[in-house]
Amino acid sequence: MTDFKYAERTRKNKIKIRKITKSGIYLWGTLGTCVLLGFYKLVTINTGKIYIFTAIEDFFKNVGLMFFQPRLSERYTFAEILQSLGVTLSLGLLTTLISAFFALFFSFFAAKNLSGEKLSKVIKVLISFVRSVPTILWVTVFSAVIGVGAEAAVIGICFHSTAYLIKAYSESTEEINAGIVEAMKSTGASRWKIIFQGILPSTAPSILSWTFVRFEMNFTNAVVVGAAAGAGGIGYEMFMAGSMYFDSREIGFFVYLVLGIALLLESISVYLKKKYIKGSTR
Prior knowledge:
Layout: H1 22-44, H2 52-68, H3 78-110, H4 117-132, H5 135-146, H6 150-174, H7 178-186, H8 191-228, H9 234-243, H10 248-276
Helix pairs in contact: 2-10, 3-6, 3-8, 4-6, 5-6, 5-8, 6-8, 7-8, 8-9, 8-10, 9-10
């Protein structure tokens, strides 16, 4: 049996498993302070004419109606809802195609094996900044600049999507066999000849897979900005059902509809990633 003679022991000669450290004291002290402040705020909060227990009861009642009794109201026909869903899908597809076009061009300058080290770093730093800002924030910024509407939604989604796809495309280009590029350079091939005859045939499956992954993300973004930026589509109908008509059952119907499309796109996306993108992470 191993003798742990250097281990700290209790008065009963048992090894101490938990040790009090400064970091542990700070951690539990911070958590305890947050809990006390939260409890104090909850007790002293001014709810006005709102009765908190009645509000909680209504909340769970509305959640039950939303998820267990969904139905479409008489305000819409099923064809109209499918049309709204088509608008959202079209918004996601349009922004993906525009972003893919620009991203493919700039990815050739962001890839280290095709451009210089400095240019590659500059582009990657810029797209890192753009990607660090959430899509909905870019849409909000452009809504403030050019006004609320579909234009702001398209530009905002494209802005973030382009940065995302430049990173994905450039990494796909950097992963190809360096011998292909070197062999073509040794024959005197131009940059664009190397790209069209050496790079694109090798990276096409990966590029298409990343594009579809982004399309799936843009669909969910289009649902959100449909309400936030007034771009229309199923997101706007959800906003109207919740904020104007207070119809929880109809919101539930829209949620299940969007969830079904999202699951379908996710299944296709996972299949493509497994088949064409090795070690991919979002």
